Each structure stands twice: as structure tokens, then as C-alpha cells.
Amino acid sequence: MINDKPAEPFNWRTIHSVVVLLVLGFFLYTVQGILNPFILFVLLVFLMSPYSGTRHHLLLVSATAMLTLIWALNTTGFLLAPFVLAVVLAYVQHPLVTRLEKRMSRTWATVLLMLPAVGVLALVIFLGIPAVSAQIGDFIHGAPKLIQTATERLQTWQTQLASRDLPLVDEQSLITRLQSLQPEAVMGWLQQRQAAIGRAAWGGIMGVGRGLSAVLTILGYVFLTPILTFYLLRDWPVMMRRIHDLVPAAHRDRVTGFASEFDTLLSGYMRGQLIESSIVGVLTWLGFVLLGFPYALLLAVIAAVFNVIPYLGLVLTAVPALVIALFLDNPLWAIGKVAIVFLIVQILDGSILGPKIVGDSVGIHPVWVILALSLFGFFFGFVGLLLAIPLAVLVKLMVEHGMTRYRSSKLFRGERPLIALD
């Protein structure tokens, strides 16, 4: 039987598409030296524009946009840090400006709020940082004396220590190693590496690099962040309205409700933690000063910074204090001072500050907070630390909404089988 069906015409569009892709691939290969993920993302969006509106287009563009954002944070974090910090500061201070706005214009309300903030920043830069740096220097220069004191004390306790059978410890070997430490050698080692230690600590906290990037970051924190914070605070309602208008009308109510819930949860946690950490730092400093414990300001700064990390913050603060106490003239009394200060501060923090300031309504699990701070701080430095809690709150809300939809689904209620057998 003869098939009278006419032959399909040759599809030149397919050949044309293949040729275009080959030429594009060859072109990208030749200019690979100047390519980066941002340029490739823009090129991808342009090439995918004919498929705009389809589900696959939305998924592909969203995924590549997220990857491009991660690349940008990892690559230019030292430049973005002042901008991200300004957004965080504006977000935290926005409710105060809104309250003041009832009595004056928003511009003057922002100025009135920013003046004390700039004054505090100036005090921190010109008084706080030099004081903390001086205490760090005193600790480094005093380390050989501390080691000498510890060595002499160990020589006194040598007989008692050797007579005790401590599990998993070779007492004689421990004493021999500590006695072999020469204070002058330790002093020289610390002096040689003091600058490197300072750079490493600064880089770890601020997420800066070397040379120009470090200079730009410092200038950004000192000068650019206050200016950006002022303009963000002044124009915050306008920016929020513009973002609100960008949401499609069909999804506006749902997105607005989710954003409101996110704002309530995040603002309660961030503002509460900021106030709580500041009070913990002041109480720690006051306690050590009243008891005459050295390096009170340095330990107070450590306590305030690490207080945002549940449970681990206490350990990270207590360890350096106990190490200092062990090398003082009366170590038992010094350890008692540390115990008194931390016991009182932790009782006040756990029974009064935490419940009254942060509250139990936040609902962010401590393990989730530790994981978020660790991962984002490791990959993105200081910018990651700023974004860790907001993203943790966002993921928490998304999981809660997803679980709510799942519990109301036919699958959860048993009205639809997991696998259709027909």
C-alpha cells in the first residue's frame, strides 16, 4: 500500500537554533576571561525572555538569581557590608522614627534619632576601640608574666600533683612541658604575630580582605553607613509602598500577610536581642569593675557580642575569663569572681531580660540560630552574620506555612492516596 501522505518540509528552524547555540558557545568560550555569574545571569534572562510567563521560566530564573546573589555576597561582601548594616540599622530604628513622626516631620524625627546614634558611634570609634585594643595589647604583653607565675605555682604544686592519679593525664609530662615554656620566648612570639593576630581577628569579624578592600570597608562603616541609614530611615515608608505596589494584585493580600508576620517575628527578635546583649555587656563590665577583675571592658565586649548565640555565648565568654583567672595571683578567688559575675548576669538574663525583652513569642529554636549564624558567618563573613537571623526567620515561616497547607491537604486527611494505583 502506497502512503500518499506528503513528506514534511525540512525544519530549518532547528538547524538555525543549533547553529546559533554553537556560535554563542564559541563566543562565550573566547571571552571567558571577562565573564562572571552576573553577566551570565543577565544573558540567560535575555535568552529566556521568549518563554516569559511559563512555569519553567520562573523556576530557572529564580534559581539562577539566587545563585547569582550568593556569588555576589561571597565575592563583594566587603563592599556590601556597610549597605547591609545600614538596612539592618534602619529596620531596627524604624518604629522609633514612626513614633516621633506623630509630633514632627519624618526628616526631623530621623535627624533627632540619628544624632545620638552618631554620637555613640563616635565614642565607640575614638574611645571604645582604642580602650579594647589597649587591653588586648596589655594582655599580650602580660602573657609572659602570667606564664612565669603559672610555672612558679606549678613548681610549688609539683609534689601534690605528682601524688595524684588523675585519669587520662600524665602529670609529670604536663609539668615538664609547662616548665619548658620560656616567658621571653613567648613574649617574642606574641610580639612578632601581634599584627597578624589583629588582622585575622578584624578580618574574621568584619569580613574584610587586604589593601584597598579593607580601607573601603572601614571608610564605609565610619562614613557611608550613617548616611545610608539616615536616607533609608527617612524614606522607609515610601520604599515599602513601592515594594507593595510591585506585588501582583492577585497575590497581594497573601504576600502582605506573610510579610507582616515575618516583620513581627524578625523585629521582635532583633530589637530584643540588641537591647538584651547591650544590657548583658554593661552588667558584665560593671560586675568585673566592682570586683577588680582585669580586662573588664574586653570581657564585656565579648559577652555582648556572643550573647546572640544561645548557650554557646556563655561558654565563649567564660573561657577567656577563666583562663585569665587561672594566671592571677589568687586564682581561686579570681575564679570565684568570674563565677559570681556570670552567675548573677545569667540569672538576670534568664529570668528577667530574656522573657521581658525578647519574650517567648519569637519561637526561634536555639539550634536553628546557632546553625544559621555558623553557616552564613563561615561562608559570607560579617554580611552572612547580618543576614543569618532574617533568613532563618524566613525559612522558619516558610516551613510553618508549608506544614499548614500540608495538614489541610486531601493527602494528609486521607482523602487521596499517596500513589494512585489505577
TrEMBL record:
<feature type="transmembrane region" description="Helical">
    <location>
        <begin position="20"/>
        <end position="45"/>
    </location>
</feature>
<feature type="transmembrane region" description="Helical">
    <location>
        <begin position="335"/>
        <end position="354"/>
    </location>
</feature>
<feature type="transmembrane region" description="Helical">
    <location>
        <begin position="212"/>
        <end position="233"/>
    </location>
</feature>
<feature type="transmembrane region" description="Helical">
    <location>
        <begin position="279"/>
        <end position="302"/>
    </location>
</feature>
<keyword id="KW-1133">Transmembrane helix</keyword>
<dbReference type="GO" id="GO:0055085">
    <property type="term" value="P:transmembrane transport"/>
</dbReference>
<comment type="similarity">
    <text>Belongs to the autoinducer-2 exporter (AI-2E) (TC 2.A.86) family.</text>
</comment>
<feature type="transmembrane region" description="Helical">
    <location>
        <begin position="366"/>
        <end position="399"/>
    </location>
</feature>
<dbReference type="InterPro" id="IPR002549">
    <property type="entry name" value="AI-2E-like"/>
</dbReference>
<feature type="transmembrane region" description="Helical">
    <location>
        <begin position="79"/>
        <end position="97"/>
    </location>
</feature>
<feature type="transmembrane region" description="Helical">
    <location>
        <begin position="109"/>
        <end position="129"/>
    </location>
</feature>
<protein>
    <submittedName>
        <fullName>Putative PurR-regulated permease PerM</fullName>
    </submittedName>
</protein>
<keyword id="KW-0812">Transmembrane</keyword>
<dbReference type="Pfam" id="PF01594">
    <property type="entry name" value="AI-2E_transport"/>
</dbReference>
<dbReference type="GO" id="GO:0016020">
    <property type="term" value="C:membrane"/>
</dbReference>
<feature type="transmembrane region" description="Helical">
    <location>
        <begin position="308"/>
        <end position="328"/>
    </location>
</feature>
<keyword id="KW-0472">Membrane</keyword>
